[in-house]
Amino acid sequence: DKRLSGTMELMSEGGLKERIIRVGKKLKHPHHSEDALLKDLEETTNCLAMVEQSDKYMIHSLMFQLIKPKIFWHEDVRVKIMVVTCIAEVTRVTTPNLPYSDDIMRDIFEHMVGSFQGLWNVTSPYYSKR
Protein backbone atom coordinates (compact mmCIF):
# COMPACT_ATOMS: atom_id res chain seq x y z
CA ASP A 1 0.00 0.00 0.00
CA LYS A 2 1.49 3.30 -1.14
CA ARG A 3 0.10 5.29 1.83
CA LEU A 4 1.56 2.82 4.34
CA SER A 5 5.01 2.95 2.75
CA GLY A 6 4.90 6.77 2.89
CA THR A 7 4.04 6.64 6.59
CA MET A 8 6.84 4.17 7.23
CA GLU A 9 9.28 6.47 5.42
CA LEU A 10 8.25 9.42 7.58
CA MET A 11 8.69 7.30 10.68
CA SER A 12 12.14 6.14 9.61
CA GLU A 13 15.03 8.15 10.98
CA GLY A 14 15.94 9.54 7.54
CA GLY A 15 12.40 10.61 6.66
CA LEU A 16 11.86 12.19 10.06
CA LYS A 17 15.20 13.99 9.90
CA GLU A 18 14.28 15.42 6.48
CA ARG A 19 10.90 16.61 7.80
CA ILE A 20 12.58 18.27 10.79
CA ILE A 21 15.08 20.04 8.53
CA ARG A 22 12.26 21.19 6.22
CA VAL A 23 10.06 22.55 9.02
CA GLY A 24 13.10 24.17 10.68
CA LYS A 25 13.75 26.08 7.46
CA LYS A 26 10.12 27.21 7.36
CA LEU A 27 10.35 28.48 10.94
CA LYS A 28 13.62 30.25 10.22
CA HIS A 29 11.63 32.61 7.99
CA PRO A 30 8.11 32.42 9.48
CA HIS A 31 5.02 33.31 7.49
CA HIS A 32 3.20 36.57 8.05
CA SER A 33 -0.08 34.67 8.01
CA GLU A 34 -1.10 33.13 11.35
CA ASP A 35 -2.79 30.23 9.57
CA ALA A 36 0.37 29.34 7.64
CA LEU A 37 2.49 29.64 10.79
CA LEU A 38 0.01 27.46 12.69
CA LYS A 39 0.27 24.82 9.97
CA ASP A 40 4.07 24.84 10.26
CA LEU A 41 3.90 24.63 14.06
CA GLU A 42 1.44 21.72 13.85
CA GLU A 43 3.89 19.91 11.57
CA THR A 44 6.68 20.74 14.03
CA THR A 45 4.67 19.26 16.90
CA ASN A 46 3.98 16.10 14.90
CA CYS A 47 7.66 15.71 14.02
CA LEU A 48 8.84 16.33 17.57
CA ALA A 49 6.35 13.78 18.92
CA MET A 50 8.11 11.10 16.85
CA VAL A 51 11.64 11.95 18.03
CA GLU A 52 13.18 9.54 20.53
CA GLN A 53 15.48 10.82 23.27
CA SER A 54 18.37 8.97 21.64
CA ASP A 55 17.85 11.08 18.50
CA LYS A 56 17.85 14.49 20.20
CA TYR A 57 20.69 15.64 17.95
CA MET A 58 18.08 15.93 15.17
CA ILE A 59 16.22 18.80 16.79
CA HIS A 60 19.09 21.08 17.80
CA SER A 61 18.57 23.67 15.06
CA LEU A 62 14.78 23.43 15.17
CA MET A 63 14.57 24.02 18.92
CA PHE A 64 16.27 27.40 18.56
CA GLN A 65 13.85 28.49 15.83
CA LEU A 66 11.02 28.11 18.38
CA ILE A 67 12.49 30.72 20.73
CA LYS A 68 13.09 33.37 18.09
CA PRO A 69 11.21 36.50 19.24
CA LYS A 70 9.05 36.65 16.10
CA ILE A 71 7.66 33.19 16.91
CA PHE A 72 7.98 32.94 20.71
CA TRP A 73 6.40 36.33 21.46
CA HIS A 74 3.76 36.13 18.72
CA GLU A 75 0.52 37.97 19.51
CA ASP A 76 -1.92 35.27 18.37
CA VAL A 77 -2.99 33.01 21.25
CA ARG A 78 -3.23 29.98 18.94
CA VAL A 79 0.37 30.46 17.88
CA LYS A 80 1.45 30.86 21.52
CA ILE A 81 -0.24 27.58 22.43
CA MET A 82 1.38 25.73 19.54
CA VAL A 83 4.81 27.17 20.40
CA VAL A 84 4.62 26.02 24.02
CA THR A 85 3.35 22.62 22.84
CA CYS A 86 6.42 22.32 20.61
CA ILE A 87 8.71 23.43 23.44
CA ALA A 88 7.13 20.85 25.76
CA GLU A 89 8.05 18.18 23.18
CA VAL A 90 11.59 19.59 22.94
CA THR A 91 11.85 19.34 26.73
CA ARG A 92 10.63 15.73 26.63
CA VAL A 93 13.24 14.81 24.03
CA THR A 94 16.14 16.51 25.83
CA THR A 95 15.28 15.27 29.34
CA PRO A 96 17.07 15.01 31.76
CA ASN A 97 19.02 17.96 30.34
CA LEU A 98 17.40 21.36 29.92
CA PRO A 99 17.06 22.33 26.28
CA TYR A 100 17.77 26.04 26.90
CA SER A 101 19.65 28.25 29.37
CA ASP A 102 18.13 29.02 32.79
CA ASP A 103 17.07 32.52 31.69
CA ILE A 104 15.31 31.21 28.59
CA MET A 105 13.66 28.41 30.59
CA ARG A 106 12.31 31.01 33.04
CA ASP A 107 10.77 32.92 30.12
CA ILE A 108 9.38 29.68 28.69
CA PHE A 109 7.67 28.67 31.93
CA GLU A 110 6.16 32.14 32.37
CA HIS A 111 5.01 32.03 28.76
CA MET A 112 3.50 28.56 29.23
CA VAL A 113 1.47 29.63 32.23
CA GLY A 114 0.27 32.77 30.45
CA SER A 115 -0.63 30.88 27.28
CA PHE A 116 -2.81 28.34 29.02
CA GLN A 117 -4.75 30.74 31.24
CA GLY A 118 -7.36 31.42 28.57
CA LEU A 119 -7.98 27.79 27.65
CA TRP A 120 -11.19 27.31 29.53
CA ASN A 121 -13.28 26.67 26.40
CA VAL A 122 -13.54 22.89 26.02
CA THR A 123 -14.77 23.26 22.43
CA SER A 124 -11.58 25.03 21.36
CA PRO A 125 -9.37 22.89 19.09
CA TYR A 126 -6.45 23.93 21.32
CA TYR A 127 -8.07 22.75 24.57
CA SER A 128 -6.43 19.31 24.24
CA LYS A 129 -2.99 20.95 23.99
CA ARG A 130 -3.17 22.14 27.62
From TrEMBL:
<dbReference type="GO" id="GO:0006281">
    <property type="term" value="P:DNA repair"/>
</dbReference>
<keyword id="KW-0539">Nucleus</keyword>
<dbReference type="Pfam" id="PF20168">
    <property type="entry name" value="PDS5"/>
</dbReference>
<dbReference type="InterPro" id="IPR039776">
    <property type="entry name" value="Pds5"/>
</dbReference>
<protein>
    <submittedName>
        <fullName>Uncharacterized protein</fullName>
    </submittedName>
</protein>
<dbReference type="GO" id="GO:0007064">
    <property type="term" value="P:mitotic sister chromatid cohesion"/>
</dbReference>
<dbReference type="GO" id="GO:0000785">
    <property type="term" value="C:chromatin"/>
</dbReference>
<dbReference type="GO" id="GO:0005634">
    <property type="term" value="C:nucleus"/>
</dbReference>
